[in-house]
Amino acid sequence: MSITTDRLASLIQRELASIVNTSVRDKSFGYINLTEVKVTKDNSFATIYYTILSDDPKIIEKAHLAIDESKVLIRMELAKKINNIRKIPDLVFKYDEALAYGNNIDKILKTLK
Prior knowledge:
CATH topology: GMP Synthetase, Chain A, domain 3
CATH superfamily: K homology (KH) domain
CATH architecture: 2-Layer Sandwich
Order of helices and strands: HEEHHEH
Strand order of the largest sheet: 1-2-3
Radius of gyration: 16 Å
CATH class: Alpha Beta
Structural class: alpha+beta
Shape: globular
Number of helices: 4
Oligomer: single chain
Helix content: 40-55%
C-alpha cells in the first residue's frame, strides 16, 4: 500500500507531537509545538517546523541543540509507531519564525495606536 506525501506528513506530525516532548525534556524551554511537516516527494526527508513559547535567541538555540541531540532517538521511536512505510524519512528540524514575525507585527501595530 502506497501512502501519499500529504498523508505521511500528517501522520508524522501527529506521532512526533508526543515523541518529541517525551524525548526532549528540558524545563528551560518547556513544550515544543510542531507547526508543520513537509515531506519530499520521494519520502526521503521530512522537514519539521517547530516553535517554543520563548522569544529569547539563547533559549531557541538551546531547544534546537536539544532536538538535534535527540534526533536519532526520535526517528527510532517514530519507526516503532509508523509501520506502513518501508523507510522512515530523515528528520530535519527547523525553528518556525512565523509566530515571532506575527508577534513583531502585532507589537508594531500596538505602538501605532
